[in-house]
Amino acid sequence: MNPDASTIAAGAPIEVDISPIAEGQDVKVFWRGKPIYISHRTKKQIDEARAVNVASLPDPESDEARTKPGKEQWLVVIGICTHLGCIPIAHEGNYDGFFCPCHGSQYDSSGRIRQGPAPANLPVPPYQFVSDTKIQIG
Fold it and tell me: What domains, with CATH codes, occur in the chain?
């Protein structure tokens, strides 16, 4: 009794097995027709994201507010640039995060805007861990 494709496209929650995602890698899945990046961040990426002075950011938000407690190695963001809706490239740019080649917006490994015309951070979709190896988005 699984929902049909039109129900899923309309926004039904999806489950994603994160066990095959190696540290330092990410996957892109689609939910509600939007690309969702799931990144398995390294300790270095987490440390760098947490060392940033939040007050210096164009859209101030801590790394802790963008991840789940105890699962800080996982970042889940909607992969749509907040400038004009382009799709940024993961693991590019000056901050080991996301780079939008259309107009040069650069996001860090927490998906926060650091440079360029984008006005806001990459949004975090509603998600939860349903087990140690699966997340539910939506």
Answer: 16-137 (2.102.10.10)
